Structure formats: C-alpha cells, structure tokens
Amino acid sequence: MAGRPGGPTGRVSSTVSIRDVIASAVPAEAGTAMHELMTELYPVCRSITGDGYRTTMAILAKHLDLDIREVPSGTQVFDWTIPREWNIRDAYVANSRGERVIDFRASNLHVVSYSVPVDARMSLTELRKHLHTMPEHPDWIPYRTSYYADDWGFCLSHRQLEALPEGSYHVVIDSSLTSGQLAWGECLIEGASSDEVLVSAHACHPSLCNDNLSGVVLATFLAKALAGASLRYSYRFLFVPGTIGAIAWLAHNEDKVDRVKAGLVLTCVGDGGGFTYKRSRRGDAEVDRVMAYALATSDHPYELVDFSPYGYDERQYCSPGFNLPVGSLNRTPYTRFPEYHTSADDLDFVRPEHLAGSYALTLSALRVLEENDAFVNLNPKCEPQLGRRGLYGSLGGGKETAQSQLALLWVLNLSDGEHSLLDVAERSGLPFELLVDAANALLDVGLLARCEMESDAACDPAGPGGTHRWRKR
Ligand code: ZN
C-alpha cells in the first residue's frame, strides 16, 4: 500500500454547519461544474487498473485531497486476486488497403477492456468471432470487458459491421498485461466523531457517463461541499474500480469498517428519470430511513426498493460478513435505460440539471443524517410551562409560529430516549429542520438532555439488523 504524502484532509476548525453548506450551495452551478468535470474525464480510457485509472485519480485530485492507494497484482483479497495491470496504447482493424475500419482512437469503447495483445491477419469470418454489436440499436457501440479471462475483441455499431466487406483484415491491439498495481482514491473529511459516512463510486468505465462518471462527479462535488465544514460525522469518499476495488478496500480496512454508520453507493445519477433508492441489506438502517425521508420531502418522483445481491458495490459492502448500512442511489436503474453500457450513455444523455438535482437531494439527506438526534424530556410529567421559559406564543400568531409551537410539543412528547428527531418528523409530519430548532430551544432552557446513538457493531454479522438504540448521555 502506498499513500500519497500529505495524508487525508485534516480536520479544520470551522463554524460552517451543514445547514450553512446547503444554504450557500447553488445546485445549478454545481450541476454545470459537475458536467464540465465529466467532460474532462470522458475521453480517458479507464479500466479496473492501468494508466487511465491513474489519470482519472489525478484529475479528481485537482478537486480533492485524494489519497491514492495501490495494491500489487497477485495480492489475495478475500476470495479474489488482484489482476494484472492492463494498459493500451492503440488498437485497430485495418482493411487490405491499410485503412482503419475500426479505430480505438475514434472511441475507446471499440476495444474489449482487458483485451490481450494481438497482431494478426484474418478473414472477416475469423474476425467476426471477436466482434460485438447491438443489432437492436444499430448505431450504438456496446461496452464489453474480459477482466478475468484471456481474450480479445472489438465492439462496433451494427451498421459498421454490416458495411464490412469480405476480405483479409489486419488486427492490432497494442496492449499489455503486466504485474502492476490496482489503484483507488480515498478522500477523508474529518468530523467531530470518528464514526464515518461512506460514499462510494466506481470509476473504472471508459467513455460512459451515467454509469459511471455521474457517480464520480457527484461524489467529488459532495466532498468539495463538505470539506471545511464543521461536521458531526467523518466522511470517507471512495473512488474504486467496480467490484475488485471495493473488495480490496474492504480487505484492507476490515478492522475499521465498524466505524461506518451510514453509506451510499452513487451511480446513474445524471439521467432524467426519477430517483431509485435501494435499501441496505439491513433494510431499516438509519441511512435507509434518512433517504426515504429526504425523497419523500423532495419534489422528485422516486421509488424505494429492497436490497438484492445484484447491482453495484453495495453487493460487497452488504455481503453478510460485513453487512454495512450502505444503500445505493440511482435515478433510472441500469436495467431500465437502454443506453446503459453503450456509446449512447454519453455527455448528452447526462444533463447538468439532473446532476444538480441529485446533488441537492443528496446534500439534504446528509443534513438529516448530520442533525438526527434523540433526547430525553427532563420534565416528562405533564407539559412543562413553556410560557414561563419564553417559548410559548412569544412570537404571536401566524402559521409559522403555530408550527414552531407544535414542533416544541412533539419533540417534548416523543423525547423519551426511544425516538429520534426523524421519528418525530415522520410521525408529526412537521419539517425536520423545525424539529431540530425546537430541540435546540428546549435544550437551551434545560428541558431536554441529548442521548447518544448506540449503534450495532457494523461488522458483526450475528448482530441484529441495523436498528439504532439511543442511550442517555
Ligand atoms: Zn457498469
């Protein structure tokens, strides 16, 4: 493991709260900036290893204090082995006149990722065995990989294939598979607690936008927004190669994962569909309830789906030996947009305004997570006399005042050490922010005491499923 000197972002003493972060955020500007970053990342030929991945991390490091971790090829990580490093310089299929009829330089999707080197002449019939197209979308180039089997191939539009005449073709893939490194990027933003919120995005696809650059740029801009703020949790942003990177990270951090109190896997967050939140394996972890609440109180259409062991890196974080409280946020799930893993998942398919919406939604969810707390009413026998403490009717009239009064009563009533402010918000229908203000006002006059969260050991597979208890501080 080699870390970049300088280490993760240090804790900054700051008075900027998560509310200030949201108040000063301009999602539309962030959406434009995210799309610009995506445009910069788009041409890079990424795979799960290699220089394309390093270039990607170097571009992200212009925005983030990013630690680059590397694990050598051949390292065992649980049931997997870190593969050889793949690099590619050029690839093409040329006709008998030497003209490139399939050219890696035109699109990096043209080469099957992890293709072994080739320099051979063959007939179209022979070549066809190595060509991949999508007849149902004849103008799109599919995306294919062969990480764990020695093979080679080209991807092209079906129309391009149909235009190829019989003849002899020169096939060249100037690639290498050598003992090297698997790299990932990690950005830690320290909060008051060592308890962590994990935000994970896979970053291993070549020129593909919704899956997966949308998740990469959203995670980057969330980290930028949180950096320098005064936070309750520490936030760990991971930019990992899909599957093998998440497995390698877990293998190298097995003793630390019980710090993860909530997590999100982000991808497919830049298309125009409604949101889809896939719950953690626990199903009732705090992050699951926070995301459900943030979506229910947003203006977006959305769907909540239960965990299933298929999808993105939540498969690893939620494997039974870890069972971390990590859910997954998408807009349209990959199974439902035909552009998925094709050249049509491009810079036009992902729009700045959709990235902006995903950014605003995620920030609002993180705010609920940051501010969710439980309290004990120190005057539980009958209502305390609020007027005497300057808390009742002091502002006189108005709908807003009535809501603030109601918030005080709800918080007092449900602050029995069993209920968090999120419980109060769900039951009362009052805005979460109003309940936080009410709790702070009641704390100030000594009517409440704060509880601390007692969370299950995150990595204890025998533990009960993700419920939070609260204990008086
Ligand atoms: Zn993918």
Write up this protein.
This protein is α/β, with parallel strands linked by helices. The protein has three domains: 2-82 and 181-367, 3-Layer(aba) Sandwich (Aminopeptidase), CATH 3.40.630.10; 85-178, Domain of unknown function DUF2172 (Glucose Oxidase, domain 1, 3-Layer(bba) Sandwich); 374-470, Winged helix-like DNA-binding domain superfamily/Winged helix DNA-binding domain (Arc Repressor Mutant, subunit A). 30% of the residues lie in helices and 23% in strands. It contains 13 helices and 20 strands. The protein has helices at 18-24, 27-41, 51-60, 124-128, 158-162, 209-226, 244-252, 286-296, 314-317, 352-371, 399-414, 421-428, 432-444; strands at residues 67-72, 76-77, 80-81, 85-94, 100-103, 118-123, 131-132, 154-155, 168-178, 181-189, 196-202, 234-240, 260-266, 275-278, 302-305, 326-330, 374-377, 416-420, 448-455, 468-472. An eight-stranded mixed beta sheet has the order 1-10-12-11-13-16-14-15, with helices on both faces. A four-stranded antiparallel beta sheet has the order 5-4-9-6. A hairpin with a 5-residue loop joins strand 4 and strand 5. Helix 6 (209-226) packs across helix 10, helix 11 packs across helix 13 and helix 12 packs across helix 13 (432-444). The longest helix has 20 residues, at 352-371. It starts with 17 loop residues before the first helix and ends with a strand. It binds zinc ion. The site of zinc ion (ZN) has 4 residues, from helix 6.
